[in-house]
Predict the structure.
Amino acid sequence: MKSSKVVLIRCDTYDRERVNEAVREGMSLLGGVGQFVQAGEKIVLKPNVLIGSNPEKCVCTHPFVFRAAGTVLKEAGVELSYGDSSGFGGCQTNMKRGGFKQVADELGIRMADFNKGKSVAHDKALLNTSFVLANGVIEADGLVSVSKLKSHGLTRLTGAIKNQFGCIPGIRKGQFHIKMADPYEFATMLVDLNTLIRPRLYMMDAIMAMEGNGPRSGKPKKLGVLLFSSDPVALDAIACKIIDLDPAYVPTSEPGERAGLGTYHYPNIELIGDKLESFIDKSFEVLRKPPASVTGGPVRTLLKNQLCPKPVIDATKCTRCGICVKQCPVEPKAVNWYTGDESMPPTYQYDLCIRCYCCQELCPEGAISLKETLLGRAIFR
Ligand code: SF4
Ligand code: SF4
């Protein structure tokens, strides 16, 4: 018996009308927007904005996908708002830079408060029993998540489940990287966040995805598909199938299924719409190996240094902006101007580094990439 549905709709372009048509078709094949929201409800739309950038760079959900989702929800009679809290910079600025504010203003969608939040208990959590959620999420009756398919150093893939990390306001996100430095603990926390928020519907923009040095500095890659589901574990698993990645290597998959959030086992997933096989791209650049499980303690720290890819700075791209230093969540900082010369790129002290990859994610120049260690390459081939 198939327990979850994922809809795939071919869409080869960001042409506004074609995207509108594809989103309508996707929602309709999933049972209609009325299955997920009721007229009069307060719904918050959550794109992946990161720090906002030109849509052509594929860092953010494309604003026209956001527009199409907003249009369908508005037509359903909901009171719509939108928001995302990025790792760096103000929400307003990031929303403008990514083209979301302009679209939202046209549609008459209000920006929700994702700068500040309140603590919310999660009694049924697997691991993390309380979260500070953005006020805009708490005040809404429900959330619709519109993610972007991108490669990711820590979680391999950033998609439906990871998108909700932006519901935690501001720098509080960095604290999770310290508290849950092990990628499997971090992933379990992301699952808890999703079982707390329980988004009504998950959409994914994979018309143009990001491969390689994602989630910010990778290369755009055309996949030509929009995905829709009420099960984010299944949606991410089908995205994995498209990029030829074993979903068991995505650390949210197993706890996601254990928490009852969904399933990553293909036989349990009903596919609707265009044929999955027509989207599979085996050349997509993504780390096709499980993340190493490493946490604190001297032996594990040694193991982490030997096994996990290291962030490295390309001096030819670095503008010495200092964002990586500012965003590094550990104290003392694992990346800093240890040479004392701020006219040179910062340098790493890898024994302090918890491999959260916030520096790589937020470097505006794409100057930081992840370099596999010799041992890590040998073990996780
Ligand atoms: S964030 Fe990037 S560009 Fe800025 S100092 Fe760090 S490595 Fe250099
Ligand atoms: S140096 Fe980079 S990867 Fe290491 S702890 Fe700091 S932000 Fe995380």
User: Anything to note?
Assistant: The pocket of iron/sulfur cluster (ligand 2) is lined by residues 311, 328, 330, 334-335, 348, 353-359 (CB under 6 Å). The chain has a mean pLDDT of 92. The chain has 13 helices and 15 strands. The first strand starts at residue 4 and ends at 10.
